[in-house]
């Protein structure tokens, strides 16, 4: 089954907590602190696997979590780092952050990899908090939490040439005659329901990959038909072969079809619309009047398209010449990566521990200042409220982070209460 979209949840590992420990040896009665640091959490890494061709695996498993870092130990022992979780994806996968829809990475080459979520940093053990006046700190630093997010995976096929055209113009037949691909072929519209890839290898030319993109019709760029689902699969192509039905047996005008498809390309992407095109006037074996092709070719030349070939995919007439010209054009077009503007790139925000302060009435004329947020949670994990040194460290952090200054600016006065989660103290100048 061809699956080219997936949505998954990823979470890196939390950092391990620093240890609170003291030397307890027989002949060292006043042993100092020796709590070790916690290990860093494992990261979430996406890596290209050239053996994968679809995102089918992600329909069965949608939640991925990396290993947590181990807590620090005694004797200054560091906790073990959590193992990174490596998730294999097909080559050509574009990774997007769901909320902003911006691109995290474009994994378009063998061996490409990217870190989606970095593991949390391990906390420092109490050995790091020794000072000349604080010889036995009874507190340590907790590990930093890991990152988490929903990401979307989009597979964009890696092909040199894209086959373009309305349904039932003979794209699948052409693909089957010039490569070993075996697409479904039938005489009804939307026979092809998924993109098909084939390798073209003829004597005298460099082999290239060609993709048959289904379902592009008028309105495709707005989601009509299957076009919007598959237009992205020709974004990486360097050359387009635009197939039209020149026979008119279905009552269609080849010029009108050509213009409509190009309008859809332009609406979807100017860069795609501006890509070099070779026009294949197919089903020439059923052409009733040669003047039809001559007029078609002249009108396209007026529009700036000079590479127009009359072919029949069914009888192979003109196909070899078409392929040789395509190979020659490809040799002139450099291979470039998908262009991603700065506005499209996802830039992770620096992880900051935030807080907010709100005020509520307390007893009589007093108020309570409630401080909430991730900063509070992390700070309280590091504090032993029954230890004077730990409490001094706690107040020092509040001063250093500017919280006490902010409280004074908000009008706090003696007797008011300050509450951080379940911990509460009276404010005194």
From TrEMBL:
Alphabetized UniProt keyword annotations: Cytoplasm, GTP-binding, Hydrolase, Magnesium, Metal-binding, Nucleotide-binding
Group of enzyme by EC: hydrolase
Cofactor: Mg(2+)
Annotated InterPro entries: G_OBG (IPR031167), GTP-bd (IPR006073), GTP-bd_Obg/CgtA (IPR014100), GTP-bd_prot_GTP1/OBG_C_sf (IPR036346), GTP1-OBG_CS (IPR006074), GTP1_OBG_dom (IPR006169), GTP1_OBG_dom_sf (IPR036726), OBG_GTPase (IPR045086)
The keyword Metal-binding appears for this protein: yes
Domain OBG-type G: 159-331
GO cellular component: cytoplasm
Binding annotation for Mg(2+): 172, 192
Binding site for GTP: 165-172, 190-194, 212-215, 282-285, 312-314
Location relative to the cell: Cytoplasm
Domain OCT: 345-429
GO process terms (BP): ribosome biogenesis
Residues annotated as signal peptide: none
A Pfam family that the UniProt record links to this protein: DUF1967
Domain of life, per lineage: Bacteria
Self-association state and partner proteins as the record states: Monomer.
Functional note: An essential GTPase which binds GTP, GDP and possibly (p)ppGpp with moderate affinity, with high nucleotide exchange rates and a fairly low GTP hydrolysis rate. Plays a role in control of the cell cycle, stress response, ribosome biogenesis and in those bacteria that undergo differentiation, in morphogenesis control.
Protein name, UniProt field: GTPase Obg
Species name: Clostridium bornimense
Gene name of the encoded protein: obg
